[in-house]
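From the pipeline queue, job 12 of 40. The input is one protein chain; the requested action is below.

Action: predict structure.
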Amino acid sequence: MFRENVEHLQKDMFGLFYSMPESMQQKAEDSEESAFYNWIFCNIDEQNFSSLYADSASRPNAPVNSMVSALIWMHRNNWTYDKLFRDMQFNLLTRLSFGLDDVETMPFCPATLFNFQNRLTSHYMETGQDLIEEIFDNLTSDQIKELGLKTNIQRTDSFLANSNIRDYTRVQILVETVIRFYRVLSDSDKQEFYEYFKDYLQGSSGQYIYKLQKSELPHEIEKLAKLYQWIVKRFKKNYRDVEIYKRLKRVYHEHFTVKNKKVYVKPVEQLSSDSLQSPDDPEATFRTKRGKNYKGRSINIVESIHPDNEINVITDVAVTQNNKDDSAILNERCQALISKTPDLEEIHYDGAYGSTQNDKKLQQHNITSVQTAVRGRKSLVRFEFEALDENRYLVKCPCQQTESTWTRTRFKACFDRRICSTCPHQDDCPAQKRKTNRTFYFDHDDVLKWHRANMIHHIPKERRTLRNNVEATVNEFKCKMRDGKLKVRNTFKTRIFAFTTAISVNFGRIYRYKMA
C-alpha cells in the first residue's frame, strides 16, 4: 500500500537538530546536506510512484523520497551501498539530508532499496515510463523557473559508458552461454544429457579456453556450432520460454548460419555490433572509437549555455546503444527537448550530430544549429546560399556570386572562370572546371548542409566557443566511472546512474552559486 512520507515536515523540538548547539545548527543550515534536503528531498513528488504499490490495504511502502534521494546522494558522492548505509546511520549531516531528526530511525534497509530499483525496472519494461527521468524533469523545470534561466541556447555532447561486464572472446561467450544453459536444466535432463555438455563443465569458460591453443580455435567453434544446433532443436519444446534458452538461441543465430540443414560458422566480419557481448548484460552493444573497444551504452547530455545565465543546468539526458550515431540520437530527442524547453532557438554541437534529417527537423521548429566541427573532409571554400524563390538561389563564394538554374535533377551555379583564376582557393574549390566557367551542382539538402557549416561564422564571436566547455560537464559523469566503466549493468540501471548524476550535477552548481 502506498503512503507518502510527510513525517519529516514536522520538526521535533527535542530532535537531533534542536539538540545541537546554536553554532552547530547554523553550520548545519548552511551545509550542502541541508540544501539537498530543502531543494531535492522535499521536492520529490512521491505520488508519481504510487503505481508501484498495491491499492489494497497492506503493509505501507518505505519512504520513496528517501530511497530516490539515497540513489542521488550515492551517485553524487560515488559511494558504494555499504558507504551509503554507513553514512545514513552514523553521519548526522547525511541523516538531516534525508529528513531524519533522530539517531535511531533508518527509513529502509539495503534489501528494500534493491527491491525498489527492481520495481522501477519492471515498471519501465512494462510501460516505458521512467519515473527517475520524471523526477529529473520536474526538478530541472522548477530550477529553471526559480533561477530565471534562459534555455533558448543549448549545447549537447555524448560519451561512451562501458557496462560492468567481463570482456569475453568469441569462443568464451559461446562456452559461457552453454554452461549457463546447462545450469537451468532439470535434474533428469542433466543426467540424461551430461555427455553432450561434460567438456565444458570442468571449470569456468575462462579456464576452458585457457587450455586451448590458438590453432585449435577454428575447430572448437565448429564443434560448438553443432552443439548449439542440437541444443536449440532438442530443448525447444520444454525450455522455449526460459530466458537463458532464448539467449542461447540468439547467440546461435548471431554466430552461425544453416544451409541445407548443415550449420556453418559466420566469419568474424559478419558479426553485428548488436550481438551478445555478455550473458550478464544482453542489451550491451559493441563499438570501436579511436582504436578503443567499448561494450555498453552511450549517454547524451544537453545543457543550457545562454551567456546571460550566471549558471547553467543540464536540461536533457538520453541513454542509448553505443552503436547509434549521435545524429540519430539528436533526431530522436529533438521533440522531447523542445517539450522540456519550448523557447529553444539555437543548439550547438560537434560534427557527429550533423545530418540532413536533423537540418530539416530543426528548421521545422525554427531552431538554428551551430556545428563547431565538420565530419569528414573540410572544404576550404565557403559557399553561401540565399533563396530567391522555390527554384532559384543566389550562390556566393569568397570572390563572386551568381544565380543558380535548375537542371532536370539538381541546381547548377556557373561562376566566371576569369575571376576564379585569381582566387587563392581555386585548387580546393568543389566547383567543376568547364571551358567557359566553373560549375557547382547542389540540391536542397546541400543548401541545408552548407548553411549548418556556415552558421558559426554568422553568430557573434563570443558565442562561437559556447560548446567547448561541455567537455567539463561530460567529465562530471565520467569521473564516477573507473577506466570508463560503470558500476552497473543493463540499460535501466545505466539510466538511473545518468539521471541521478544529472540531478546531482545541477544541484551542485546551484548550491555553489547560492552560497558564493
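Job complete. The CA atoms of residues 259 and 265 lie 11 Å apart.
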